[in-house]
Amino acid sequence: MTEALLAAGLACVIAAIVGGGLKAAGFDIPPLKSLTRQVLLGGLGVVLLIAAGVGRVPPPPPPPSPSPTASSSTSTPTGQPEITLSKNVGVPGTSLKLSAKGFAAGEPIAISFRTTELARPTADKLGAVPAQTIVIPQDWAFNGQFEVTAIGQQSIRRATAPFEILAPRIDVTPTRGPPGTTVTVSGTGFAVDERVEIALHLEPLGDVQTTSNGSFRKKVQIPSDWKFRNVSFSISATGETSHRTDSTTFRVT
Length: 253
Fold this sequence. Notes:
The protein is an alpha+beta fold. It has helices at residues 2-18, 35-55, 68-72, and strands spanning 22-24, 27-29, 82-85, 89-90, 95-101, 109-113, 116-119, 129-135, 144-152, 158-165, 169-173, 176-177, 182-188, 195-200, 203-209, 216-221, 231-239, 245-252. Helix 1 (2-18) runs antiparallel to helix 2 (35-55).
């Protein structure tokens, strides 16, 4: 049926154009005597061609199937955000490794110790951060348990892990002696690689550099001209950077 309409429409259009009649495909169109009949014949041909075209409209294509890549990749985080520290106890200036997961893919993550930002790594396509080195602030003066915090800057997801700052402590050996006695002062809990000043009461006895774990050991001498005898005085150690301090007693005999 569609093919017949197409053939008839073409015949009418061609006949209207030539105006002299046409005999083809079983159709016999006589010559036209007037312009009006020629126009009408052309219009009929156009109508037949449109009808044939409507009958031949192809069915709509099926909807595209979802792309495997689009369906499998997403920036929506899943599970609870979490951070892991390589150590949970230390002193100011301690270096440690931090890893994180459960954040949005590709988002920056602000890593902080209390209010001090330590790093801002970017999460990978799985929302994770592989081992990242962070350093506890060397000038931190307080003792006790604090938190390392990770906050996703797009998802606003938040995770914390505890970190304990050890208290400074010093010991002296011996704990008593006459003026001129050599005393060994040992300290822990100070900042990493900081200068520590040692004093007897208000009298400076020397200084020492701490190790990578905030400890030190230093021999000092009680002044030989110390005039006060049979009295206990404090020997103190104070960190130059962290201002962390501790003291113990030494009795001058």
